Amino acid sequence: MNKILIANRGEIALRIMRSAKEMGIKTVAVFSEADRNALHVRYADEAVCIGPAPSNQSYLVGSKIIDACKLTGAEAIHPGYGFLSENPAFAQEVKDAGLILIGPTPEAMEIMGNKLSAKAAALKYNIPMVPGTEEAIKNVDEAKVRAVEVGFPILIKAAAGGGGKGMRIVEKVEDFEEQMQLAVSEATSAFGDGSVFIERYVTSPRHIEIQVLGDTHGNIVHLFERECSVQRRHQKVVEEAPSSVLTPEIREKMGKCAVDVARSVSYVGAGTVEFILDENLDFFFLEMNTRLQVEHPVTEMITGLDLVKEQIKIARGEALSFKQEDLKISGHAMELRVYAEDPLNNFLPDIGTLQTYQTPKGYGVRVDDGFEQGMEIPIYYDPMIAKLITYGKNRTEAIERMIRAIEEYDITGIQTTLNFGKFVMQHPAFVSGKFDTHFVSKYFNQESLKSEDVQEAMIAAIAAVLLLKEQKATIQATDVIAKKSNWVQNRREY
Ligand code: MV4
User: Fold this and answer.
1) How confident is the model over 340-386, as pLDDT tens digits?
2) What three-state secondary structure class fits 249?
């Protein structure tokens, strides 16, 4: 494999190219008209424009990407995440064109692309799953009987759904029919497939996923877990590895289950098996993602492996160079997704120009990004501008380093989720490790970011009062507090 095409943009395109370069493989970028000056275009050895800015006219058009391979002589395609990365029809077209897709087979993608067929495949092994229906619901009355058996609250899920889309919680049996009808029509319009099923609703889960790697020789290993419970409306914000709640025993059990799930579809490449973990630390398989995930760097940091290099070696037909027992966890890694969104304005995308853009540096800090100072964030794509990753000898050090790195990160011109990340890192529930998927909705409101400043102002005011008292100044304490906090409020930047 001498040349690969990266069918993606932004930070992940660059991240993939860096590994290819280290392996002596030439890279081809594809870009839309909005990305003509993007870093991934400049970094690549060659670049091909594949159309106008909207992704359905560029990054999502499989035929243009295959044509770009033919034009440049690229032998393989790395799809990154999003876009065409989990599209079985594209995977098949790539194969039919005599090219290599750096990823799993179209068959594995197809099965895992549907939650019901994924669960059916996993059923071949003894994988714990949330009680519910094993097939798409055809008869509402039968489903209602099953729902009562399973016990309320229950969750209706769309088989074709992903990332929490098309999910509905039903609290009591009287609401069942109505919610079912709504779920079916929602699923039909969103995915063109109205298949839904039910599961018992696990009320306070943690979201834990296991990274797996499979080669073309039948070897499959897991690379431990990532904790992804800190999310907002199904958008992950903070991820870490390892999870602070898993015991070595549960980790081993989950890891074995993840390998079995992968084995159930003869998985080849890098994949992620998603579980939820309840308060009793019982875990249940939910689904499998057949791509390299956004949060893969935390796994790289604790295992010392380069997942993109492993993907490329697997695609070249090489056998994994290590066994499960060779792998171990070293230290702790945190990742914060830096979005161009305003936490003080309901996380609305905040597009514009990066007037200042200075990344944090130093020991244990990694920034995977795709922009530089002066660039404009295009409105057409995902608003994630960077991933800030820190590594430490333990969780405490990774958190402390993350706070330091957030403070060093200097971005002006757009609002970002950096200060929100700092709120998470300093929150007692996060620090103690006792949190679930409701962390953000439970603890965060816009006041949390403001109150940090007010608290600082109060402390500053009290310190000033004490200082003045010491100096025996004759000023009323209340005046000082009012003045001090006003001063701090006036210089606030948001
Ligand atoms: C669940 C659940 C509780 N009980 N299934 C959301 C995304 C999709 N991958 C699965 N999801 C969930 N499935 C049962 N039976 C709670 C969630 C869930 C969730 C899962 C992972 C990460 C964040 C989440 C946020 C809300 C709900």
Assistant:
1) 999 999 999 998 999 999 999 999 999 999 999 999 999 999 999 99
2) helix
Question: Using an 8 Å Cβ cutoff, are 42 and 61 in contact?
Answer: no
The answer to whether 337 is a known catalytic residue is no
103 burial type by CB count under 10 A (0-12 exposed, 13-18 middle, 19+ buried) = buried
In this predicted structure, which of 85-99, 130-144, 274-288, 425-439 has the lowest mean pLDDT? 130-144
Give the integer Cα–Cα distance in Å for 147 and 375.
52
What's the sign of the alpha-carbon dihedral 441, 443, 449, 450? positive
**What distance in angstroms lies between residue 386's CA and the mean position of ligand 1's atoms?**
25
State in Å: Cα 436 to ligand 1 middle: 11
Mutating to test ligand 1, I would choose from 112, 155, 165, 239 the residue with most ligand atoms within 8 A of its C-beta, which is 155
C-beta pairs of 319-326 under 8 Å, 24+ apart in sequence: 319/215, 319/216, 319/217, 319/219, 320/213, 320/215, 320/217, 320/219, 320/221, 322/221, 323/219, 323/221, 324/221, 324/222, 324/255, 324/259
**What is this structure's pTM?**
0.91
Residue 269 pLDDT class (50, 70, 90 cuts): very high
Q: Tell me: the pLDDT tens digits for 297-341? A: 999 999 999 999 999 999 999 999 999 999 999 999 999 999 999
Mean pLDDT of 470-493: 41
User: How would you label 47-70 residue by residue, b for 16+ Cβ within 10 Å and e otherwise?
Assistant: bbbbbebebeebbbbbebbbebbe
CA distance 210 to 427: 26
Pairing of strands 26-31, 3-6: parallel
